[in-house]
Amino acid sequence: MPCNGKLIAQLRKLLGWTQNDLARKSGFTERLIVKAEASQNIATSTLQIIAETFREAGAQVTAADLSADPAALAREFILSMYKHGPKVIDANERFLSPDLVLHFAGEPKIFPFAGTHIRIEAARVAFL
């Protein structure tokens, strides 16, 4: 899953660290930190270690905070709507909350999917 590279870079800079500093303190290579800050896919276990490194320096951050780049996830979801069509929820379930709430504006007589759909199952039905 793409990580929140902007947040990683922001926290690193807030602490006055270079990418090399973060790499050394977390036990990773500078190349991996560059990859993380570019919001590329990073293992959850790696993000846990990076979050712990930040917490040890006083930052209030969790691995969950670092594991989700909202803009990247939104782009991925929208692009996958074209690719997966009615199966878009299944294709993206790994990063959707089970308590998902979708709201589609419009007149239900014209747009059958219009309305509020609460939870994953209702979202699946909305896209069928």
How is this structure best described in words?
The chain has 128 residues and is mainly α. It has 2 domains: 5-66, lambda repressor-like DNA-binding domains (434 Repressor (Amino-terminal Domain)), CATH 1.10.260.40; 70-127, no CATH class. Helix content is 55%, strand content 6%. The protein has 8 helices and 2 strands. It has helices at residues 5-14, 19-26, 30-37, 44-56, 63-66, 70-84, 88-92, 120-127, and strands at residues 101-104, 115-118. It has a two-stranded antiparallel ribbon. Helix 2 (19-26) packs across helix 3. The relative contact order is 0.13.
Chart the SSEs and their pairings.
Layout: H1 5-14, H2 19-26, H3 30-37, H4 44-56, H5 63-66, H6 70-84, H7 88-92, E1 101-104, E2 115-118, H8 120-127
Antiparallel strand pairs: 1-2
Helix pairs in contact: 2-3
Key features of this structure:
128 residues, mainly alpha, 434 Repressor (Amino-terminal Domain), 8 helices, 6% strand, elongated
Question: What is the fold-level CATH name, i.e. the topology of the largest domain?
Answer: 434 Repressor (Amino-terminal Domain)
Average pLDDT, to the nearest integer?
Answer: 90
Q: How many runs of DSSP E, i.e. beta strands?
A: 2
The second-level CATH architecture of the largest domain is Orthogonal Bundle
Using the coordinates above, name the CATH class of the largest domain: Mainly Alpha
Give the CA-CA distance, first to last residue.
26 Å
How many DSSP H or I helices? 8
Please give the largest β-sheet.
Answer: 2 strands, antiparallel
Note poorly predicted spans: none
Q: Could you tell me the strand content as a percent range?
A: 5-15%
